User: Which sequence fits this backbone?
């Protein structure tokens, strides 16, 4: 029994099996070891109980209507044994599980830190070391411990990377954390596991595990790539790198979500064809000696002070991006609005790569 | 069909609780525990139908990765409705309120529960709670049956059913508390001479343990829901971090009730199964005292383990370790019960009729449900499996596969007593097997879904199309199960009108309810019943004329 057990128990870098997905982090191994220990105990009890159940069903099946079935009514030694034996087993399981768990909770010294913000329904990853913000994507180096410090902007969320076997709730009003060390280069699913409202099932991100020598260049590129771009290159950059932050509320195909669609937005703004909850109309606010001398100013204000004017029919739940966007990134977003039909198709699909080349 | 042509040999209709008084008002305002039990049964089965329709909507939605019939918003409301209805309106009242009300006083040898008027009031409260649930469904609730904060406090989602559903659950809680109080007092005060604690059938021990939890734990959820209502309407900051509250505090309050509540659901079903296994194998229950004490142990330990619902909530590592350790303590009495049932079957005379198939199915399913609980008590694996389909599969194995299958077994066991008619035995067997096979197909696949990475409460799984095959198998299983339930409804309804008249004791049971006629007379027992060993079947013999069992002529009644 134990020889079979030891050969079948977790081996490093294991591929997906009948029960579990592939292992792609250091902690996955100890979690899977615990899983396998329990599974073998379960197999033993399940098959023993089922075998006896079926055997008794067949062997002692009633023939006719005879009443008398005589058997022992109790047997204290046996009953005490089958009370004590499971107690010993569960203590073993508890200890194995606790050790695995403490391993899961204690991030090693000097872990690479990423700040995670969860909000309905997107994951925002901030790399303080590089000043990079990723949305819906998290790039991390392989073979290096990474610690996620997590906060929520609204309700409960839970960050789960099944292949890494890590999960932690993201709670508004406090920080939580988890850590992992990826063991294989590749892309992994990151899901929201705590129900958070309408698009809970779409609150998804991809973890890109890259070789360590490629990680730093990737971060540097993300941090500064827009700085050297000409204005003509900015729409492609914005739609790929910045729109992620907008997409849970603003569609590209005309669908109304939490906020107005970006489709045709520039024409509406330029024409002043926007009504606000205050009763004002944008047309009256545009031009010399008014609030917005240029229509671009209105968009800029909407980004840094979204509560200033709320469009009729919407709740005005947009957060401020003051300080989060560099001036050139705001310009990039405005350029994206102006040239939206050059970077997306009718159905709202993005048609270009960040460097402006067409997407296949 | 044979059952249609069997002549009714007794033309005179004996006076019983069904025909003692007539008219709808004689039912709605009855103080008779049997009628109240039947009214609960009808309402619970209606709620089960409703919850079942929502379950099928969930299963068909998940046939394809991008969903088939519902939008995200609709799906969220459907799974909330399914969970809330099945928990608050079906599983919690199913065995205690429906079967318990009918069976408990007769089994005990009493004429009624201790407080018949309170009992009727409980039922009316229950109906009142049901009305609030229906209002809530119309308004829309999308929080999940757990009402986690701060999402449940968010007034911008356009869901207007949240306050009604909270009020409904609050009212249902009081119905449950009153029923529990009634049962505790009944068992303490109304036992006839000779019915000592250790002569009580095990169903009564289980109901007693359940009643203790109902009385002690339910007030906590009542207060919690009330706080939630106040916070949502008036805006005091208890659970909402935006107002200085703590959302994790809500989880502590909620699970302080809702974990014991899973024992409100499973303990009575375990009690039913103890009866089923013994009666239908005509074998003295093995280890009576261990089973009786294990019910009490489960009720006690059940209060100390709520924190295992919160291993990833941000509660401290030390608390997680402590809760993990205590949680394992619940597994011991559960395992003891399974071993004792198995030992009862040993050298039994096992009749594979419909109630017994449900009883045996319970042992099989509860074994899986119980063992998979180990993964959730263990910290390292619980983190990975928390809020995944593995949990969904686990609690359906326990709540549906065990609690509800126990309830169905109980219905089939006591149906001849409740209605006075026999159902078609073969249809009963086929239906039980369909439910068993369908159930395992539906939920076993969900273990693999969860451990491989499918989160729960997902309306779509576009990014994880590899999971489709599991969802398809699961949906097929759910359909098989639905066919089993429909068949069950057909032959049970058929038996009411066309069934063969039931003998007093069709299965050869020994507890007191089998000593009165089927259906029981208005006041249960004309004279004080005599109490003996309720698991000693050697005093009974088969009577082919009656198609049932009666007391052997050569054996004296106890006390004679």
Assistant:
């Amino acid at each position: 029994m134990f020889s079979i057990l030891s050969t079948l128990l977790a081996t490093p870098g294991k591929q997906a099996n009948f029960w579990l997905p592939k292992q792609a982090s250091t902690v996955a191994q100890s979690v899977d070891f615990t899983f396998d220990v329990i599974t073998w105990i379960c197999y033993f009890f399940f098959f023993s109980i089922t075998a006896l159940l079926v055997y008794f069903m067949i062997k002692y099946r009633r023939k006719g209507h005879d009443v008398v079935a005589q058997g022992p009514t109790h047997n204290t030694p046996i009953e005490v044994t089958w009370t004590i034996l499971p107690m010993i087993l569960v203590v073993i399981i508890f200890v194995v599980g606790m050790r695995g768990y403490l391993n899961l909770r204690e991030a090693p010294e000097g872990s690479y830190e990423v700040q995670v913000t969860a909000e309905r329904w997107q994951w925002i990853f901030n790399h303080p070391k590089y000043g990079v913000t990723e949305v819906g994507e998290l790039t991390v180096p392989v073979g290096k411990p990474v610690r996620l410090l997590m906060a929520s902007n609204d309700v409960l969320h839970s960050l789960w990377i099944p292949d890494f076997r890590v999960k932690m709730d993201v709670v508004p009003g406090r920080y939580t954390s988890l850590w992992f060390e990826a063991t294989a280069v590749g892309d992994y699913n990151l899901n929201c596991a705590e129900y958070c409202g309408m698009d809970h099932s779409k609150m998804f991100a991809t973890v890109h595990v890259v070789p360590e020598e490629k990680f730093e260049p990737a971060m540097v590129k993300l941090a500064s790539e827009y700085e050297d771009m000409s204005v003509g290159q900015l729409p492609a950059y914005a739609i790929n790198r910045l729109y992620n932050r907008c997409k849970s509320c603003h569609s590209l195909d005309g669908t109304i979500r939490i906020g107005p669609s970006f489709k045709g937005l520039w024409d509406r703004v330029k024409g002043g064809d926007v009504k606000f909850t205050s009763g004002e109309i944008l047309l009256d606010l545009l031009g010399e000696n008014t609030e917005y001398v240029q229509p671009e100013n209105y968009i800029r204000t909407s980004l840094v002070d979204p509560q200033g004017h709320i469009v009729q029919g919407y709740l005005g739940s947009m957060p401020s991006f003051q300080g989060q966007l560099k001036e050139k990134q705001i310009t990039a977003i405005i350029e994206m609005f102006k040239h939206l039909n050059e970077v997306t198709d009718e159905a709202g699909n993005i048609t270009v790569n960040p460097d402006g080349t067409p997407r296949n | 069909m044979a059952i249609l042509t069997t002549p009714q040999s007794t033309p005179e209709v004996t006076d019983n609780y069904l025909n003692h008084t007539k008219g709808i008002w004689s039912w709605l305002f009855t103080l008779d525990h049997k009628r109240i039990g039947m009214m609960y049964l009808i309402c619970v089965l209606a709620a089960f139908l409703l919850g079942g329709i929502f379950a099928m909507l969930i299963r068909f939605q998940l046939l394809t990765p991008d969903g088939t019939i519902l939008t995200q918003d609709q799906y969220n409301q459907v799974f909330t409705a399914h969970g809330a209805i099945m928990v608050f309106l079906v599983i919690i009242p199913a065995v205690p309120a429906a079967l318990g009300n009918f069976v408990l006083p007769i089994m005990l040898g009493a004429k009624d529960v201790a407080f018949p008027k309170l009992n009727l009031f409980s039922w009316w409260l229950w109906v009142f709670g049901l009305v609030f649930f229906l209002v809530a469904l119309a308004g829309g609730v999308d929080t999940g049956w757990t009402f986690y904060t701060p999402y449940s406090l968010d007034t911008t989602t356009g869901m207007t059913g949240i306050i009604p559903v909270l009020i409904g659950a609050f009212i249902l809680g009081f119905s449950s508390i009153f029923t529990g109080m009634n049962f505790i007092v009944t068992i303490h005060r109304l036992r006839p001479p000779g019915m000592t604690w250790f002569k009580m059938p095990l169903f009564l021990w289980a109901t007693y343990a359940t009643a203790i939890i109902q009385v002690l734990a339910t007030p906590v959820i009542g207060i919690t829901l009330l706080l939630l209502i106040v916070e949502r309407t008036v805006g005091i900051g208890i659970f909402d971090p935006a107002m200085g509250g703590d959302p994790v505090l809500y989880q502590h309050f909620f699970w302080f009730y809702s974990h014991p509540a899973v024992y409100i659901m499973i303990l009575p079903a375990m009690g039913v199964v103890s009866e089923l296994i013994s009666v239908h194998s005509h074998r003295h229950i093995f280890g009576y005292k261990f089973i009786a004490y294990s019910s009490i142990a489960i009720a006690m330990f059940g209060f100390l383990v709520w924190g295992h619902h919160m291993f990833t909530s941000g509660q401290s590592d030390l608390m997680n370790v402590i809760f993990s350790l205590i949680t394992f303590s619940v597994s011991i009495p559960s395992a003891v019960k399974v071993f004792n049932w198995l030992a009862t079957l040993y050298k039994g005379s096992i009749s594979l009729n419909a109630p017994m198939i449900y009883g045996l199915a319970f042992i099989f399913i509860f074994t899986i449900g119980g063992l998979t609980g180990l993964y959730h008590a263990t910290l390292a694996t619980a983190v990975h499996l928390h809020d995944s389909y593995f949990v969904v599969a686990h609690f359906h194995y326990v709540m549906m596969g065990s609690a509800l299958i126990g309830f169905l077994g109980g219905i089939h066991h006591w149906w001849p007593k409740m209605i006075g008619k026999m159902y078609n035995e073969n249809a009963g067997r086929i239906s039980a097997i369909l439910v068993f096979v369908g159930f395992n197909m539906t939920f076993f696949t969900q273990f693999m879904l969860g451990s491989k990475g499918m989160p729960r409460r997902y309306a779509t799984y576009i990014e994880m199309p590899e999971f489709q095959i599991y969802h398809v198998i699961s949906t097929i299983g759910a359909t098989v199960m639905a066919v089993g339930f429909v068949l069950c409804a057909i032959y049970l309804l058929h038996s009411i009108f066309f069934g063969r008249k039931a003998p007093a004791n069709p299965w050869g049971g020994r507890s007191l309810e089998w000593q009165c006629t089927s259906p029981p007379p208005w006041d249960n027992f004309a004279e004080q019943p005599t109490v003996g060993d309720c698991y000693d079947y050697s005093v009974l013999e088969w009577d082919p004329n009656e198609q049932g069992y009666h007391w052997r002529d050569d054996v004296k009644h106890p006390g004679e």
User: Anything to note?
Assistant: The first helix of chain B runs from residue 2 to 5.
